[in-house]
Amino acid sequence: MKAATPVVSIDIVLLTILDGVLHVGLTKREREPFAGQLALPGGRFDIEKDSDEYDAAVRILREKTGVTSPYLEQLQTFAGANRDPRGWTVSIAHFAIVHAKVADTADARFTWRPVESVRTLPFDHARILQAAVTRVRTKSLYSSLPVHLMPEMFTLGQLQAAYEVLVGSPLDKRSFRRRMDELELLVEVPGAVTTGSGHRPAQQYRVKDGALGHLAVSDSNLGRKAA
Amino acid sequence: MKAATPVVSIDIVLLTILDGVLHVGLTKREREPFAGQLALPGGRFDIEKDSDEYDAAVRILREKTGVTSPYLEQLQTFAGANRDPRGWTVSIAHFAIVHAKVADTADARFTWRPVESVRTLPFDHARILQAAVTRVRTKSLYSSLPVHLMPEMFTLGQLQAAYEVLVGSPLDKRSFRRRMDELELLVEVPGAVTTGSGHRPAQQYRVKDGALGHLAVSDSNLGRKAA
DNA sequence: CTAATAGTGTCTCTTAGACACTATAAA
DNA sequence: TTTATAGTGTCTAAGAGACACTATTAG
Question: What is the pLDDT of residues B179-225, one digit of tens each?
Fold first, then answer.
C-alpha cells in the first residue's frame, strides 16, 4: 500500500424508470472485496483506449452493462482513504439515463433495483447513488432532462408521468403542456397515434432534430402542485 | 509511460476581486514541464495526510498560496491523454473564493492576474479556468456566493459591486436591496458606519451567524437590468 | 455649495399555478 | 353505456424589474 498515487476508477449510476418507479442498474461484483454483492458498475481507465474521462465512462458503461446511453454526465469525484478497504482510492462518478426499452437490452449480469429499495451498497456507493438521484431530481425541475427517459416516440402523458416520477410529486396537466409547448423541444409525429388502449388515442411526439444533446432549460416549476 | 493507473492531482482556481475586476491567482511553476510559466496552483494527494479530496484541496491551497479560503468547492474532474505532455493524467479541479484582504496575504510566489487578461496557460488550465468562471458567474445569479468575496464587515454598496463584477452587468439598487433583505442573510453591525469618504456614510453589515457555509439560494434574477 | 454615495416605495407586467369540462376509443 | 385517458382556456396571485428623489458627509 505504498503507491504514491492512488488508484482511479470510474463508477456509473445508471437510471431508468420501470413500472413507474425509478430504478438503478447494479452488477454483481466478481472479485474481492465484496465479491458477489451488487454494486454500481465501474472500471479502470484504459490509457491505451480512452482519450478522456468521458470516453472511458462510455466504454465502461458499454462493457459492463451492454447499454449505450444517450445521456451521460460527470457527477462528482469521490476520493479518500476510507471508501475502499484496500486503501486510498479515487472514483470519478458519472450518471446515465436510459429509457425502459434500452434497459431491457442490458446484460444478464445486470440487475435493476428500485432506488428506494436499495439500502446498502459496497464502498461508498450508497452515497454516490444518493448524489446522483439528487442531481437528477434537481435538474428535472428546471430542464428537459427527463425526455432522455423516453423512447423515440412518446405521448405527452407518458412524458408527464416520467417527470412526476423524477420530481416526486404530481404535476398540473395543463401547466405541464404549456411549458413543453414553450420549450419548443418536441414535434408531433404526423399520424402517429396510440391505439388499442380502450380510451381516446394520444398524439405521439418525438424530440426535435438537434434539440437533444443540450438540455432545454427553463425557470419554471413545471406546474408542480403545492404540498 | 506504462503506469497502469494515471497520475492524479488537484488543481485550484482561486478567485478574488481586486480594483473592481475579477482576478485569478497563479503560481510560477518550479519544474518541467512548463517550468517558469504561470499556472494554476496544484499538487498531488498525500495519502498519509489527506483523508479525502476536500482535505487535500484545503492543504494544497494553503501550502501553495498561503491562503485559507472559507469557500472551496469541487468543480469538475479533467482527465485524458492530451492534457499533459507526460501522458495520461487526472486533475480534480476545485475553485475557491477569497476577499481582497486575504488576497493580499498570499505568498510572494503568488501572482494575481485579471481573468480577462489571461490568454494562455499550461496544460488545459485555460479550460479549467474557463469552467470555474462560468460556474461562479452562474451561481452568482441565484445564490449568495458573492458574499464570500466580502471581508467581515461591508456595505451593501460594496456587496452590490461584487455581484456586478461576477454577473457582468449592472444591477438595480432597490431590487438588489430588496432581495438581500428577503434572503435574511445579513445583519446590520450596530453603530458601524463608513466614514471619511466625502459623502453620506453607509451602514455596515456582516453575515448572520451560521448563515455562511451553505449558500442562500433564490430564484430571482437579482434585479439585473435588461440588455 | 458641490460632489459623491446612501437610502427609500410603488407601480406594472410577466409568469406560474389553479381549476373543469368535452372528446374519443375499446370493451 | 361505461371506463379511461387526451386535449383544451382563463383567471388570479406573486414576484421581478423599472423608475426618481431626498439624505448625509467631506472638502
Answer: 999 999 999 999 878 888 889 999 999 999 877 655 666 655 565 55
**CA A107 to CA A104: how far, in whole Å?**
9
Split chain A (227 residues) into runs of 10 and give each run's mean pLDDT. 74 95 94 94 95 96 89 97 95 95 74 95 98 95 93 95 94 96 93 84 92 61 52
- A88–B47 CB contact, under 8 Å: yes
Q: How far is the CA of B175 from the C1' of D22 (A)?
A: 19
Nine-digit cell string for A191:
399520424
- Residue B141 CA to residue B217 CA, distance in Å, equals 9
Please state whether beta strands A110-114 and A21-28 pair in parallel, antiparallel, or not at all (unpaired): antiparallel
β-pairing, B42-44 with B71-80? Answer: unpaired
Residues A108 and A28: their CA atoms lie apart, in Å, by 10
Beta-carbon contacts below 8 Å between A and B: 82
Exposed/middle/buried for residue A222 (C-beta within 10 Å: 0-12, 13-18, 19+): buried
Taking CA–CA distances from A8, the nearest residue in chain B reads: B5
pTM value is 0.92
- Of the partner residues B76, B80, B219, the one whose CB lies closest to the CB of residue A51: B80
Chain B 71-110 residues in 7 Å CB range of strand D: none
Instruction: Give the span between the Cα atoms of B204 and B193, in whole angstroms.
Output: 6
Q: How far apart are CA A77 and CA B76, in angstroms?
A: 8
The one-letter amino acid code at B197 reads: S
Which residues in chain A have Cβ-Cβ distances shorter than 8 Å to B4? Answer: 44, 47
Residue partners of A199: CB distance under 8 A and separation at least 6: none
3-state secondary structure of B21: strand
Rounded to the nearest angstrom, the minimum Cα separation between A53 and chain B is 5
Q: Do A156 and A146 form a contact (C-beta atoms < 8 A)?
A: no
The Cα–Cα gap between A44 and B6 comes to 10
Is the Cα torsion angle A67, A68, A72, A75 positive or negative in sign? positive
Phi/psi at A151 (5° precision)? -70, -175
Alpha-carbon distance of B138 to A158, in angstroms, equals 32
